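Annotated sample (chain length 453).
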Amino acid sequence: MQSFTQRLFNVRRDEVAPLTAAALYFFFVLTALMVLRPARDALGMRSGLDAIRWLFIGTALVTLAVNPLFGWLVSRFRRLVFITATYGFFAASLVAFYLLLTLAPSAVGEASGRVFYVWFSVFNLFSTMLFWALMADRFTLEQSKRLFGVIAVGGTLGAIAGPWLASLLVKPLGTASMLLVSAAFLVLAIVAAWTVAWLQPGLEAGAAGADERAVIGGNAWAGIGSVFRSGYLSGISIYVLLMTVTATFIYFTRLQMVAALGDDTDMRATVFAQIDLITQVTTLVLQAVVTGHLMKRLGVAVALAMLPVLVSLGFLGLAIAGSFAVLVLFDAGFRAIQRAVTRPARETLFTVVTREEKYKAKAFTDTFVYRGGDVIGAWTEGGLAMLGFGLAGLAGLAVPLGLGWTMLGLWLGRRQQSLATAKVVADATDQAVAASPRRDVLEGPAPVASPPA
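Output written by the structure step:
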């Protein structure tokens, strides 16, 4: 019999251990990232705000170049080996940056700041991509609908703990020491990843990822090719692209409207903090008690359509009212639904594809396509501003994008369900064939025809 807590969070008793390990894994990853964000911003801003758009392009190109290397790791090594190698590389890089900052501080300038900014952006994308790829490989579609929202709570808590730790430790230890703190959390993430992979309770029979000794195989470029060959994977990539483009639109709209309030830095910081507070509280509530029930009852398609519907209504409201209060509600709602509902729902889409696609195609989508959306959004917004189009012009572009994005989300949800059904039928057929006794064993060899007289 389930307890009230298990019913509230939509979790079965045998899933508590792997769920806890997964949430801790995400907590460690997000804490490692958020501890570093102040250092990233401080070093990256040395080149000025105008350089950020170019750094977006640099990050997109680096993620494209790194994808074949990651694909090679996935093709040649077992799952836990390439996961450990990826996080280990980033941890070693943090130690190297720490040694550079402490032993050769004079070498730290605009160029090194740009390098660290791009490196952090790549680190950010690959570390979270790898986490969700393991989740899609570890849990079934039915489990993912119920559990991914609760698992995401660990990431939200990590996003809160990271800045808190940074504010607490920077003064006594120094900014450079945050790199070592982040590296330590990455080591803890590796331990948690091994725990998630090896904990068997809650993993249904026949689920992907049960054989940890298996090597995925394939070639280094398979992920990129899969995205262009598969309509389903291409749809996921377009969904991610539209999401990041509109998120960038909202980001620059927020910067402009906050800047219009005045030049006081403390006032701006207070406004951003208030938006973040509303976002974090709303996200935690949605992740913990809403997302799992929503996807289980209404389906992934509805969950995927919620964010683009909000985008269309939000930009329409900004174009009509143009008030700062509308922006605050829109921005906080967008980020809360994106983190609490859209991200878990989007990650369930990868539970019905092959193991190779879960890691290789997902890496391409969650790194290059994601950062490419940032680039398109940033330069599109800048181009509209140069042409004199204000908020109404941006809304005129965002609203139809949101409508098309909604249709795509509904299609992806329906397509996922059809793929899941086909997989169940195929698995049942394979099991039936394997379980049925061979005819030649039961009946002996077929009789040989007598030679003609």
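Annotation: Residues 319 and 392 are 5 Å apart (CA to CA).
Annotation: The radius of gyration is 24 Å.
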